[in-house]
Design goal:
The chain is of the alpha/beta class. Helices cover 40% and strands 19% of the residues. The protein is globular and about 45 Å long. Bound molecules: inosine 5'-triphosphate (ITT).
Length: 185
């Protein structure tokens, strides 16, 4: 039987993370990924409220990571978590939701991306018109409020098999591994 190896959690305990939002799904993802509570502080992403390209989503995550480290100087690493959509016109003609984590320590920048999850075509096209945000659509479809702080679109479409927190957890682990693993030194 293969042994499961985790990210070195002991190292995380010595590190203070600043997270550029108070969003509960994102905070929970950082706790799952690092086993420590981040210092939450809301900062601007510098991109639109509903990013509709991969580039815009990644830039939003990087901006948040840099801004939050400036705002919380006692932290060692700033984390910016951003959700956005991207359209694959090459292989599938399909809209995808994805979740990005940027990590910045003042010198080194790393970006982790969570699973790219297919989104119903009509929702992607509606968002493209720029008049609403995904959370409003998911709130309405799921008859809830604040879906973006909970299981999110992932939870609604998979009946809870994966959640927004799960996806961001993977993105956070991916972004932080180059800081922690000796294989990257
Ligand atoms: O509070 P902040 O950190 O700003 O988080 P947010 O959820 O409002 O904002 P993001 O920038 O991460 O996401 C951009 C938009 O897409 C929405 N969104 C992204 N992923 C979602 C999900 O899984 N479920 C519902 N809405 C989602 C989100 O709520 C925003 O309207």
């Amino acid at each position: 039987m293969s042994q499961v190896r985790s990210v070195p959690i002991l190292l995380h305990k010595e590190i203070r993370y600043a997270l550029g939002t108070y969003n509960q799904a994102k905070r929970a993802a950082v706790v799952l990924a690092t086993a420590v509570e981040p210092i939450c502080h809301s900062v601007a992403s510098g991109v639109s409220d509903q990013p509709m390209t991969e580039d815009e989503t990644i830039i939003g995550a990087i901006n948040r990571a840099k801004h939050v480290l400036e705002a919380v100087p006692e932290a060692d690493i700033g984390l910016g978590l951003e959700g956005g959509l991207t359209y694959d016109s090459k292989h599938t003609n399909q809209w995808y939701l994805f979740s990005v984590c940027a990590a910045w320590d003042g010198q080194q920048l790393s970006v982790g991306r969570g699973v790219y999850f297919p989104i119903p075509h009509a929702i992607g096209e509606k968002l493209k018109q720029g008049e609403t945000e995904l959370r409003h659509i998911i709130d309405e479809l799921g008859s809830t409020i604040g879906s973006n702080h909970k299981e999110g679109a992932y939870g609604l479409f998979t009946d809870g098999r994966i959640t927004r927190t799960d996806v961001f957890r993977d993105a956070v682990i991916a972004a932080l591994t180059p800081f922690h693993s000796n294989f990257y030194k």
